[in-house]
Amino acid sequence: MLLLTNDQRLALRWLVEQVAAGRLPETFYITWEGGFSLPVITFPLGAPRPPNELTEGALRAWAHGGYVLADPPQGSRLTYRVTLLGRAYEALATSGGSGTAGDVAALIDLRDFIDAHFDEEEMRDLCFALGLKYDNLGGRTLRGKARELVLHFVSLGEVDRLRAELRRMRPAHQTELDDNSRAA
User: Cα–Cα distance between 49 and 177 in angstroms, integer?
Assistant: First the structure.
């Protein structure tokens, strides 16, 4: 987060908090409209109004820093498809954001547990058991998919549900999972 301005950090913090609270999905569309170039989230409908600090420049800086994916606008409107990435959560939590360093460490441990104990087919089974489609998870590698799975359950506030399914699928590793849940 060292490369971001204070306004860019504030806007990113707002975005992470909205996703974590379930008021905004991890993928959304944003447009800058009007003479004052105010940001408007155009999808989903009824999304919260973003802060004025969420500028096109901030979005580009986030994309450059790996905090979001931002598909460039098509045509004459400045509409971007934006996907929040795990690095945004990690950066804010370790720099005094909405979580604590211990919370982030526990989530990283959970991601690492999934990456170490599941192959791709087993990860597909895990997603199926949790009602998710593996192919809809962000991330290109198994580790990336594990990260996005953890972040999905963070955004829902249901990390315990994910841990319960991991315990069911990997009963021999209960102690490791229990140690991880106490750290959170």
Answer: 38
Q: How does pLDDT run along the chain (184 residues), one tens digit per residue?
A: 446 787 888 888 888 888 877 888 889 998 877 655 788 888 888 888 888 888 888 898 898 888 899 987 776 667 889 998 888 877 765 554 444 444 666 788 888 899 999 999 999 999 999 999 998 887 788 988 998 898 888 877 788 899 999 999 998 887 777 766 554 4
Alpha helices in 66-119 (DSSP H): 86-94, 101-117
Task: Supply 92's token pair.
Answer: 């804010």
pTM here?
0.52
